[in-house]
Specification:
Blueprint lengths: L1 E4 L18 E6 L9 E5 L7 E3 L20 E2 L2 E5 L7 E2 L15 E5 L10 H4 L3 E2 L2 H9 L5 E4 L10 H14 L3 E4 L11 E8 L7 E10 L1
Helix pairs in contact: 2-3
């Protein structure tokens, strides 16, 4: 059995949607400077790094962090589709064309290899996006699906932002599928996942939150 993170560490170089630079992490106390302990002060947007979008992100009446019980965050029917996406491509249900799909999925992971651009401008400026129509396809085909995740910065392609807003609403509001963005998938290809545990930072009434994801492989 192997257990690995599918999420990134947060730091001041973490890429953010639109190229924003808004994360600060500074030392608040240092033993080397005479403090009794080492501590840090952290400031960041709640949609930073590997993070999850809740329905409230795109609807004032949508569900928030508090509406999900602890049991929600354990995924037992995980499927990963490997699909190499091009810059600015809008991903549709065609990614399943050559896949042998399981009967049940509660967490779908899309491994596009776009994480290889994470240190480049293209990662946030030319990222792929996901078609609004994929949401209904997944909800119809997999009625137990709870979330999707992928290795690019946002469901919204930065160069197709209007379509991306529509896609967010289709997933989060119309089909109740949560979105996990900016996953670390560089070692996941061709491996059988037994289960995933995903733990959002418990921010009261949050519309989104950084999330730690741990995969157990068979």
């Amino acid at each position: 059995m192997t257990i690995e993170y599918l999420s990134y560490y947060l730091n001041e170089n973490t890429p953010l949607y639109g190229g924003e630079r808004a994360i600060t992490i500074k030392n608040k106390g240092l033993i080397s400077d005479g403090s009794s302990s080492n501590t840090k002060e952290i400031s960041l947007p709640n949609h930073s790094g590997t993070h999850i979008d809740f329905p409230n992100h795109f609807s004032d009446t949508g569900k928030k962090m508090n509406d999900y019980p602890a049991s929600f965050w354990q995924f037992k029917d995980v499927f990963c589709v490997d699909y190499k996406a091009e810059k600015e491509e809008i991903i549709t249900e065609e990614i399943f064309k050559d896949c042998e799909l399981p009967l049940k999925i509660d967490f779908l992971i899309i491994n596009t290899s776009f994480g290889g651009y994470r240190k480049e401008k293209a990662y946030w400026n030319n990222n792929p996006g996901i078609s609004p129509g994929l949401a209904l396809f997944l909800r119809t085909r997999f009625p137990d699906i709870k979330a999707i995740g992928f290795d690019f910065i946002s469901l919204s392609s930065y160069q197709n932002r209007l379509l991306g807003r529509e896609a967010h609403k289709e997933f989060l509001i119309e089909n109740d599928i949560l979105i996990i963005e900016d996953m670390k998938l560089d070692t996941i290809a061709q491996r059988k996942i037994k289960s995933v545990t995903a733990l959002p930072l418990q921010i009261d009434e949050a519309d989104g939150s950084p999330i730690t994801i741990i995969a157990e492989y068979e």
